[in-house]
Structure formats: structure tokens, C-alpha cells
Amino acid sequence: METVSKALSHGGVQGVYRHESAATRCPMTFAVYLPPQAADGPVPVLWYLSGLTCTHANVMDKGEYRRAAARHGVAFVAPDTSPRGPGVPDDPDDWKFGCGAGFYLDATEAPYAEHYRMRSYVADELPALVGANFPVDLSRQGILGHSMGGHGALTLALTYPERYRSCSAFAPIVQPSTAGWSAPAFERYLGADRAAWRAHDATALIEDGHRFPEFLVDQGTADSFLDDGLRPHLLKEACARAGIGLTLNLREGYDHSYFFISTFMDDHVAWAAERLRG
Amino acid sequence: METVSKALSHGGVQGVYRHESAATRCPMTFAVYLPPQAADGPVPVLWYLSGLTCTHANVMDKGEYRRAAARHGVAFVAPDTSPRGPGVPDDPDDWKFGCGAGFYLDATEAPYAEHYRMRSYVADELPALVGANFPVDLSRQGILGHSMGGHGALTLALTYPERYRSCSAFAPIVQPSTAGWSAPAFERYLGADRAAWRAHDATALIEDGHRFPEFLVDQGTADSFLDDGLRPHLLKEACARAGIGLTLNLREGYDHSYFFISTFMDDHVAWAAERLRG
């Protein structure tokens, strides 16, 4: 693991690191914020999954999470959203597929199956790497994300409920297998058989019996993707049927951007921190 | 004036606007954050001047000022750092001169004098434009900035003490006429006669009798430009000799980046807000 940069911020250290990933078979870059409390021993860790087109840098630059992470003593890790680089198949004309659009799944279709293994990367490889190199307590992990990363957070929490003590999302894609901006990617990554898609769809996972104690979701009402791609009511209905707790905050006038995310980041970090305590 | 974008954030509105500037004779882009209190009537306005290479966007994305501006009910305006565009003379190989490096002065030398008039733009034209188009109270203006923008804030406050009620800076260039990264630009903008440079140099202005009630300065001790370009002790000595109040916070281990600025932004907005009250 190589250190790309490190800077003091809000009393802790914001670093960027790079390593050769076994899961994605390419170099991967990620950001880790260690709060000041990490100097005294392992701290809980919060995984933040970003949306389409993002890298580790978007939330690091615009997410305004460091103050809350420092206050609550939580590490905050932001991976990239896909494999990248020479040899990684891409579709540069489609921002909803390929580089920047890994959808936090393990692709099974050629030629994507070789590198597009973001589920294994985010759920297994990166926690092991971060656990070995930073003072974090892997028995206290939380996960959150935005848009495609909200989809990632929800599906990972539902798939591995024993690994995460908290899960929240900003404007998540709650049913990617039926949304116009994600279903085509699912077909290319996972093949035409929609049964295989259910393992990567939050509402389908809930229908199929997966459970997580509770979710926090913030959604802007002026989000241009609201009705077409996001559709929080589908998650609300699925959670209600399954008896899963859902705090769904519809935020009047807010859009899909980091201007929205940064406004409510404090709430999400505080909500996670409460569930990650001792 | 044209609206480029608008988004709700921290309860207020973050907008980006563009207009044809009479001062710089080119289109200029700037960012305005209006706090929620602006819905009820004019609010004080804080001008933030950015450092070398920046546009309006750097502090808008990374400055983490919106929460504090919303709490204190202060508008926050970030102009660009220079004229830009076809016809604006530039030196693309030098990040310390030309586009992105206007140094908040009115150039007197050809070919720069035609467009490089950032002092007139920031002190006169932009306040008039913002005052006419947004609910701000121009009798309550404060100014702050970073690095080259810290130089801009200090020199404007010392030149027009009647216009600004507060002035603060992050890692300012306090004596640009003798710093290696600014003196060459001064020579090209203002000519070889160094007497003309004194009007754009904070320590020289103080020596020449200009006064401002008090300054707040934060400076990271791990700032790679500290000893060469910034030299806060020169401001400290000048203020001490002149009886100007200076709160100089040396921040152990912090660098020159927005990771540093965002950490102490709250303090600067609160400090300004206290001096901008009713």
C-alpha cells in the first residue's frame, strides 16, 4: 500500500492511498480519514460508497464529513466506484456503465468479470487492508452511500448484516434492476437472467428474506432522478412489509448533489456513531 | 447577470453567476451563498478571496463555509482570482502570473492593464452588482481570503477600512513585494518602480500609515510556503509597531490546503459575523 497524500484536517488525518487489488486486478485508490481519537487506539469505521462517475475524491472534497467524524471518533473510508486503468474494459460514452459505474457487484459476464468485482473489493478486500494498516476496529463497521453508492450500502448491509452495525443512504437507487439507469448495466455485468440480479437489488433482497435492523435515508424532493431512478417509496413499501425500520427524510427542495449530501452528512455520521459505540 | 446554477444547501441557496465585467472587460463568474435568513431581509456579506490557481469553485466545493454562514446569517461571495478568456493575456507556463493569479490589484503595465483590474472588480464592481441583485446589506461587509487571497483581503481592508467591518486570512502572503512567488508578478503588472507596489503590500501599507482595527490570521506550521512566501512574522511585527490588533493562530501540523482552511473556516465566519452584527 502506497501513501498518495496526507493532510491534517479537523484534528485528524485525511489520507489517500493506493494498492494493487487482488479482487479487481488493478491498482485501486481510496481515501481514509482518521479522527484524532485514532491516536489513542482503534476507532469504528464508516464505509462511504460514492455514486456514478465519482472517485474517492468527490466525497473527500465536498462531503463535509471530517468535522463530524472527528467529533464522534469514527474513521471514514471512501473507495473508488469501479476498477480503472489500462486493461479494464470500459464504455467511455456511457457514464452509467464501466469505469465510475461498478455498481458494487461482482460481474459474472465476460469481459467484465475479470475486473468488475467491487462487491468483493468493498466487503472483503478493502476492510482487510484497512484493518491491517490503520487503527480501526472491524467489529464496529458502518456503511453509507449516495445514489449508486446508496444502492451499494443497502445491498451490502442486507447481504452481510453481521458485518455492519449501521447503514444509511443519501438518495439511494433502491431498486436498480428496474431503473432505467442501472438495469442496462446489470444486464452487461450479470447477464440476461434477472434472477441473478436479485442479489444486487435492495428491494428484491428484502423480498427474498434478507433483513437489517434499520435504515436511515435522506432524499431531496428536487432531485432530478427521484421518480425515474431512485423511487424511495419502493424501499419504504419493502421495509414496511418486512418490518424493517426505515427513517426516510424527504428534504424539500434539495437536489442530488453534494450540496445536498453535505447538508445532512452530520446527521448520518451521528446516526452511525450512535450504533458503533463500544 | 446570468444564473449558472443554484442548489439548496444547509438551508440556504448556493448559486453561481456570470456577468460581463466593466472592470476586467471579460465575462466573470462568481459564487454567492445566501443563508436562510436572506429570505427575511438583507444580510451582511462576507467576501472570500481565493489563492493562486483557484476559481470561484475551490472554496465553494471544499471550504465548508455554508453551515457557519447559515448559522450566523451571513452571505458568502467568492469571486474568481483573475480575468479569463480569449483576449486576456496569460502566461500558461506560470501558475503565479496571469490567469488564476490576478493578485487583487489594478495592473498599470501593458498588456495587462486592460483586463487585470481585480482590485476595482472586487472592491467596487462586484459589491455594486451583488448589492443590486441579492438581499445583502452593503453597510455590513467583511472580507477574508487564503494565500494570495489573504493578501487581497488584508490590502483591501487597509486601503478601504470604511468599507469592511472585519478582515481575516488563512495563510496570507503578507509582504508580496518581497516574496519570490509574487514579486515577479508585481513587476509585470505594476512596472519596475517598487514605490508603486507599496499600495498592494499589507506590511508596506501599514508602514505607510494605513490602519484597520484588527485582523484574524490562521497559519499552518507545516505549510510548505511558510518561510518563503507567507512569513506571518512580518505582519506580526508591522501590526505590533502600528498598534493594530492581530490574532495570529499558528496551527501545528496544518498545511496550505483546503483541508486546513475548512478546519478553521467556522472560526473565521463566526469572527466576522460578530463584527457584522446589526
From TrEMBL, chains A, B:
Enzyme class, broadest EC rank: hydrolase
GO cellular component terms, A-Z: cytosol
GO process annotations (BP): formaldehyde catabolic process
The organism's place on the tree of life at top rank: Bacteria
Reaction equation(s) it catalyzes: S-formylglutathione + H2O = formate + glutathione + H(+)
UniProt-listed Pfam families: Esterase
A GO molecular-function descriptor: S-formylglutathione hydrolase activity
InterPro entries: AB_hydrolase_fold (IPR029058), Esterase-like (IPR000801), S-formylglutathione_hydrol (IPR014186)
Matches recorded under SUPFAM superfamilies: alpha/beta-Hydrolases
Catalytic residues as annotated in Swiss-Prot or TrEMBL: 147 (charge relay system), 223 (charge relay system), 256 (charge relay system)
Keyword list, A-Z: Hydrolase, Serine esterase
Transmembrane segments: none
Catalytic activity, EC: 3.1.2.12
PANTHER family: S-FORMYLGLUTATHIONE HYDROLASE
NCBIfam families xrefs: fghA_ester_D
Function noted in UniProt: Serine hydrolase involved in the detoxification of formaldehyde.
Family per record: Belongs to the esterase D family.
Name of this protein: S-formylglutathione hydrolase
Source organism of the structure: Methylobacterium oryzihabitans
